[in-house]
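User: Could you check the structure of this?
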Amino acid sequence: MYIGLGIVLIVIGAILAFVLQVDIPGMDDGMLGWILIAAGVLAILLSFAMRGRTRPAGYTATRSTQVDPVSGSRVDETRVDPDSRL
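Assistant: Sure, the predicted structure tokens are below.
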């Protein structure tokens, strides 16, 4: 989710650090560029780190069918486990 934001921050930071020579009062534009680059890298790394922590939605259902040997009727059984991970 934050990969796009990270890329945008890296691009804006690289433009500020390497291309533009803007006089921002009280701040060095090169340092602001490096801060934005670092924030972009951090956003991308956190996006990858948080990807594996999401819990999948849904449940697991197991169905089994057996034939009763005495009566010859079919018996269907369904087990639902809402807490399982896919």
